[in-house]
Records
---
Amino acid sequence: MDSSPCSPPPAPAPARAHDPRKAEFETNKLRKRLRRLVGQAIADYAMIEPGDRVMVCLSGGKDSHGLLDILLTLKDAAPVRFEVIAVNLDQKQPGFPADVLPRYLAERGVPFRIEEQDTYSVVKRLIPEGGTMCSLCSRLRRGVLYRVAGEIGATKIALGHHRDDLMATFFLNLFFGGKLKTMPPKLVSDDGRNVVIRPLCYVRERDLARYAEAMAFPIIPCTLCGSQEHLQRKQVSAMLREWEKRHVGRLDSIFSALGTVTPSHLLDRTLYDFAAVRATGREETDGDTAFDVDRALEDAIERAAQVPAAGEGNSAPITVHTRD
Ligand code: SF4
């Protein structure tokens, strides 16, 4: 469970291998990759510290199931001691299978809490028929989760947003919000009392879909409320999937850019003191190549031009713009 609208449906997972030994081998390989990426994200952003009690928000979707499973396996192997508690919010949506998660969690021996709160009726009452419910639903859910975190003494709240969520949010902010921002891997909650972490921030959605299928997690769909996924989010996710199919490496480059920001080469005066820029008389090794082309960028563009886009014989000619 996360505090934002439910994730869009993933691209179909590749067909599973029929040979059981091969299937097991593939699942182990995938688990190792997920563990490595989650471990790396935790280390890079100092997400979990010794003694932490991590509350995993479990909606029953593939992402939160994957998050819980990987954190549990890391907990057993990590040199750092921390606890994991799964929390599910039963929002009283019609048809919610309330017994599924408690049974699964009890069978796995995972400490858990099921919080029952009828946010569904509140949303239905306040949002006119046909309106988008996700925003209010998320806000109500967030409030409940923050409260529960305090009650169980959680020091971190882990959400199941993955790399594709971060990129889609980045483009939604870019296209509609006029901001360069996305969901951060770690932040202080808006009530100032909780630290929220996103350990799946390096993990691709399609890997989570494959893992959920291989592990046969008991998935609860996020369509019980009858709300439609936000159209713009749907379109941005489709755009990213299309890029992934047609342009090798484009999403990797975008994701890398999210972690490689150069404030002096953007326009935000609050991040960089442009008024203080002066000629120093010294050579600046990391300074701007004000009149030259950016060699690294040019090389990357040339490399991309060598790879024909999927479905095309030749890639389109690329014009390199220089700044002089
Ligand atoms: S309204 Fe429905 S789809 Fe939207 S966030 Fe709430 S549960 Fe998910």
---
Amino acid sequence: MVDSPWPRLDDASLREAYAAFLAARPEFEATCVIDEVRAREFGRLDALGQIYLDYTGSGLYAASQVRRHSEMLLGHVFGNPHSTNPTSLESSRLVERCRRHVLEFFRADQDEYAVVFTANASQALKLVGESYPFEPGDQFLLTFDNHNSVNGIREFDRARGARTHYVPMVPPELRVDEAVLERCLDEATPGRHNLFAYPAQSNFSGVQHPLEWIAKAKARGWDVLLDAAAFVPTNRLDLTRFRPDFVALSFYKMFGYPTGVGALVARKTALAKLHRPWFAGGTIDVASVQADRFVLAAGAAGFEDGTGDFTNIPAVELGLELLESVGVELIHERVRLLTGWLLEELPALRHGNGRPLVRLYGPTSLERRGGTLAMNLYAASGRVIEHDQVERQAGEWGISVRTGCFCNPGAGELALGLTRSEIEHCFTATGSRMTYDDLRRCVDPHEAGAVRVSLGSMSNFADVFAFREYARHLLEAA
Ligand SMILES: Cc1ncc(COP(=O)(O)O)c(C=O)c1O
């Protein structure tokens, strides 16, 4: 527990700044029902003096999610699914109901899409990577901007002789050059397996890559894997409008609880194309030792190894209900307005000698971006203030931000201007066991990471104001 950051913030200046914010963005008033939800459901944030700015790391859970889940657990007897006894049937009923609810939430046609419950987005991505029928002559195309759990799929395609190709992004906006992407998409090999993967929203820069790419890529022969983990907590994903083959996500990023449950939402035809590398309890209709044969269960069941998390999966519905009751569109609007304020305020912070305190990576306007901001802070001398120092100091203010490269090395390398030869040199000089600290030392005085501030469903003006105030106290007089 943090003592209290508020003595460092002057309440009067917060009130004044809020009044100015509202005057400039009167539409924010319409989102103020979220303040009531926050007071009712997330009172612990303010009671414990926590200023939470790491929503891309994890969403936060409401008190009622936990209460309703414990009532659900205490009011039922849940047995292992996969059987027909009453307690097993009860578990299966709630898990299946949740599956339907997830499809409804994403407006997916139940005949077209299936939900595979996984441990998290990474496991959903791995299921696709390990089961996609890569062969020599096939291709895996992905953007530089990707989480490592997507980058890692290249190891599967390389092991099977397929080709990996990265589409670069262009600094400073860190978006893909559409002309380059068009050329890459044109290179799908007819009659072969072509997989294209990208994030709907960057977990590094907040860039929202166009969902229109999905139809374009599909029309040219690509299967599309959309990493929606950082997008769905504050944006509507409508699978009747945009129809990727595979969507990966983690539910804790959307509403904090339960952890340990994610999903691969996949077109049934795309699932049928995958070849699982093994079978397990729960994934087969029948298997024989003597006959050395097995028959994989059809649909989602064939991808859910062993016993699923049958006590926690039903709690996903409680999170979906919370998001539905607040409204994803309203959350989106609130995050947009608060992000806009930070985008204006942070670059305006200047040391006495005129040098900027903050350098933002990625889009500096609100166009096609979400509420994730990557940046570094600099002393008046121009030297970077180490990101781990920022994380530690901000923590003393009760502020949670994340620092490093956020498991997104492609976006990080481009944002920070690290070249391939510099990084290759570090790997060669340090040896195969290079750690992140080795990399930092090797590229010094170059930045090797960044500070990430991310907004989410319960962010309020006081949160962003607190971060601005923390940053402001780093300013040096002339
Ligand atoms: C865009 C994106 N993809 C994938 C992941 C992996 O999610 P998880 O760690 O829940 O598997 C993350 C996590 O931060 C993410 O931001």
